[in-house]
Amino acid sequence: MNLRELQSKLDTQEKCLTFIEKLRWPDGIRCMTCGCDRISRIKSSSKKQTVRYIFECLEPTCRQQFTVTSGTIMHDTHLSLQTWLCAIALVTQAKKGISGYQLQRNLGLGSYKTAWYLLHRIRESMKSGGRSPMAGILEIDETYIGGKKKGQGVYTGKKSKTAVMGIIRRDGDLRLLGTGTPTVKGKVAEAFIKENVSPTAEMVCTDESSLYPLALAHIGERHQTVVHSRREFARLGGVHTNSIENVFSLLKRGIIGNFHWVSVKHLPRYLGEFEFRFNRRHDPNLFTDTVTAVARKEAMSFAELTKN
What we know:
The chain is 40% helix and 15% strand. By secondary structure, it is an alpha+beta fold.
């Protein structure tokens, strides 16, 4: 859904509430506390809202009151739902992501802090979980995010980088992992590969890094290598790592061109955003899928987001 359609179809708070309600409870509203499906709808007012739409559980021992955003990543938000949906639309349509300052300007938000917190809650919702191993033709590679520190040599500057591993199934899904360290450790690579590479994979392509022979020993001859140090980038039979390298190029263009700098602490959320959007690049329901993820993600406070 683009912004023009959004403004046409979801132009009021009530329409937004109904839209999110159906995505959060597709089988009907249930009490957040006891799970009862007998719910009463109440309209009230508060200091923040002239009209407040509340659900009340009709179970005599519960009588819990809640709203469509209660307990979600939007919990206790002071922003309108139209603002949330516009922000989600901008994030899903930006192939290389959108910065907090750009979002602040586009939505007329009061501060960068508000835009930054809003974006990170959306990214937190986009982080994938419960993924199954991938089969087919896979490519694995690693890249490094960051730059050299001023006044330091090339070797010392590399220590300021953060390693990122990636696995992609050709014409399929992508998996990214921020290691949080300047290099990829063998145990980290082995665990990541074991989690995401099916033993029945048709072929796994990597470069000549020493990380992969041991981690892919169970694949046997189906593990194919291109030797970049010899300027070998592809071989007959479809042996190359161009797909995952294209993903890394897109990721770095997003960081350099939009975000300019990302911290190791928050890098997993940026990777989750790129992975979520890339895996649904052909999905016409990308916007709806993202709103559903936001509506079902547990709340995250600003203090939790910024704690050391």
